[in-house]
Amino acid sequence: MNPPSTRSRLLLLPRELRNIIYEYAFTEPGGLVADATSRYDNWTRFRTACNTSDRTRDANQLRLVCRQLYAETSGLGITYNDLTFQRRGGAVFVSVYDLFDQFVYHCAPGYLSKIKRVTILDYTTLVPEEDVVLARLLSPSLVRFSRAYPSATIIVRFQWNATPYRVDAMRHFLRGNALWPFEIRHYTRSGVCAFARLFEHAAADCSQNLRFSLTMDFDEEKFSEIIARKYVGNEEVEYLVGFFKGLHEDGI
């Protein structure tokens, strides 16, 4: 491609109009490729990628460059605004919360403001003691980040034995809402959901964008069986399974 002899008129257009032109160039089906069989030596001919007919040839270099740039960058598969932290142990144990703290400490504020979603995977299988849980949930970096960047969603996922009642208990103590308050009182008294009380202490310091989930993966069959014992109608069961699946995906 020959360099322009003068400043491109495209750069003189308003930014909004340039964006429309670029969007058209990126999304035009087929794209354009150089025609190596062109009979002309003094200029470059282009054709659509899906057609070899001479009638489809074009000398639109802007579309060709944009399509090539899109093809070269679309396969990178990296999204810097959706981050996941996980740690399963090792020779020197570093918790997933320590990793997040180190990331926030070393990351420039300008990049932190672009983050839209953070997922922290805590593979602790046993219910921790109260002081351990609170120390993790209320780690200074985690709380400060959620407050400083309210547009970002932070989800902490646990690998605990989740049931609809335990998830509902967690939702009750953390957000003040519950589907089955009677069952929550029963399970809390029996000690099965005692761990959920820990979130009651954390609720005062947790912003709405700092959310929690008891599951790494949602077991739809398990939740359906448990809910079906309480509700007979298929529509009610289907609705509630979808409700708890939403709590799994977006946190409580």
TrEMBL record:
InterPro entries: AN11006-like
Record protein name field: F-box domain-containing protein
Organism listed in the record: Ophiobolus disseminans
